[in-house]
Amino acid sequence: MSKLWGGRFTKKTDQLVEEYTASIMFDKELAEEDIEGSLAHVTMLGKCGILPEDDVDQIKESLHKILHRIQRGEMEYSISDEDIHMNIEKALIEDIGSVGGKLHTGRSRNDQVATDMHLYLRKRVAEFVSLLAKLQEALIGQAKANIDTILPGYTHLQRAQPVLFAHHLMAYVSMFQRDIERLQDSYKRINMLPLGAGALAGTTFPIDRHFVAQQLGFDRIYDNSLDAVSDRDFIVEFLSNASMVMMHLSRISEELVLWSSTEFGFIELDDAFCTGSSIMPQKKNPDVAELVRGKTGRVYGNLIGMLTVLKSLPLAYNKDMQEDKEGMFDTVRTLEGALQLMAPMIATMKVNSGRMRQAVSQDFSNATDIADYLVNKGVPFRQAHEIIGKLVLHCIENGKYLLDLQLDEFTKFSKLFAEDIYQVLQPEHVVNARNVYGGTASNQVAEAIARAGETVGANQVWAEALMPKNR
Ligand code: ARG
User: Fold this and answer.
1) What is the Å distance from ligand 1's center to 110 Cα?
2) What is the distance in A from the centroid of ligand 1 to the CA of 438?
3) Fumarate lyase N-terminal domain spans which residues (predicted)?
4) pLDDT in tens, 10-47
5) What pTM was computed for the model?
6) What's the pLDDT score for residue 1?
7) How far apart are CA 228 and CA 169, in angstroms?
8) What's the pLDDT band for 286 if we cut at 50, 70, 90?
9) Over the stretch 188-212, which tens digit does the pLDDT of each residue have?
10) Mean predicted lDDT score pLDDT of the chain
11) Whole-angstrom Cα distance, residue 110 to residue 199?
């Protein structure tokens, strides 16, 4: 059989052109969505009296057969049929003859491919929300298991003030919550039907787009046919949301790399998530965290690539848009891999609370609290800051930490110091003193964990309802 669009042509396509323009090598990933869309389309053609029911039944039966062939991995694709749409249509015509040629009535590959992409991405968004919620659960699990653990909190990677390790982990839960909310919001713009826009202007057949949308579970249909076939904003938005998730994953990866170094020694990653060195027998490398950090680059690249493809395209469809696929598939794979590994890697890491506690007792991260101590006794904050600065300098010069000082050393700097200063300087006291909403005090963190538990439950419910198997 020759090309489905062969009529106007008198010459064979150049072999290199065929290879250059084909997309079947990668868009075969859309095979199931393509058939899902075709089934809805042909059902509508029958309902609207555009095709006789007999033809519709034959086409549907054959499409189901092709779907099973694809699912069993028995479908053979051919580059000369360019893309997934024509490969499937060709298989249909081979199976049932010229009746198969009626499927494409009132439709173009332009609205067809856009529909496939919407169907594909909405499944992925549900899966990503679910994976992100699982990661949140892993973080919350570690926060609960280490609720009393204190570590130095950092600014500029310099020890700043002690915080609960749980508080630190819950910061990531908040970050991933924003990612989830962005994905959920984007769903509105993904769950829209382009089909019925035809090549660009609509179709002369009396189709029913609302019926197709209903069958496919789309909440809305595109208002403008030109926009329907040329909109790739929803893909840009997905790539942007994926970039943000990767950026967050890369930040936590960096912390895991630092924390598992001998210098920090705060955590130990499970053997199952590390690799060794081919030359240095003592090494246990945090490769997964490093690779997640590294792969963030390609996801950003896919976003910039897509924005650049679209930036000067005139309406409506242009072949440039075929470039939307590889970056999107690559992003889906990269993000999926990172999320699938990050949750169990966090859940299984060993937290070395002794090392964290030791770090907190060998620094000046309680200095702010002595300043606050003086402020509570009436000293203006700026003046207190100056006094404590000198006190810290005194400590450094004498090789001491604040808790090592005798009371008479304290009182040399201010008469207001009394015995209770030793209590104030204890890391537990320092942490629990920050008893504001969103602060690191134990009761505040416990409440944050409880609130997050509910949110994560709601995230799972949202994702479950939209997961492919539940639609
Ligand atoms: N393979 C094409 C793509 O991914 C499908 C649409 C082709 N449409 C066309 N008029 N050539 O964009």
Assistant:
1) 6
2) 50
3) 7-301
4) 899 899 999 999 999 999 999 999 999 999 999 999 99
5) 0.95
6) 61
7) 42
8) very high
9) 999 999 999 999 999 999 999 999 9
10) 96
11) 5
pLDDT digits (tens, 9 = 90+) for 291-315: 999 999 999 999 999 999 999 999 9
Q: Which domains does the chain have, with CATH numbers?
A: 6-105 (1.10.275.10), 110-195+223-358+449-470 (1.20.200.10), 362-445 (1.10.40.30)
Identify which of 24, 110, 318 to mutate to test ligand 1's pocket (most ligand atoms within 8 A of the CB): 110
Does 470 have pLDDT greater than 90? no
What pLDDT is stored for residue 468 in this prediction? Answer: 73
Return the closest-CA partner of residue 90 out of 293, 79, 431: 79
Which residues line ligand 1 at a C-beta cut-off of 6 Å?
23, 27, 83, 109-110, 113, 317, 319, 321-322
Q: Is the pLDDT of residue 469 over 80?
A: no
User: How does residue 471 score in pLDDT terms, banded at 50, 70 and 90?
Assistant: low
What's the CA gap between 363 and 385, in Å, rounded? 17
Kindly give the number of the ligand 1 atom that is closest to the alpha carbon of 325: 4
pLDDT recorded at residue 7: 85
Q: Whose CA is nearest to atom 11 of ligand 1?
A: 319
The rounded Å distance from CA 97 to ligand 1 centre is 24
> Which residue has the CA at smallest separation from atom 2 of ligand 1?
322
pLDDT in tens, 351-402: 999 999 999 988 898 999 999 999 999 999 999 999 999 999 999 999 999 9
If you measure from the C-alpha of residue 323 to the centroid of ligand 1, how many angstroms do you get, rounded to a whole number?
10
Q: What is the reported pLDDT for 284?
A: 87
The tokens for 31 are 């095979």
The residue whose C-alpha atom lies closest to atom 3 belonging to ligand 1 is: 322
| Most informative mutation of 18, 28, 33, 83 for ligand 1 (most atoms within 8 A of CB) | 83
What number does the ligand 1 atom closest to the CA of 199 have? 10
What residues act catalytically? 156, 277
Ligand 1 center from residue 319 Cα (angstroms): 6
DSSP β-ladder status, 267-268 and 350-351: antiparallel
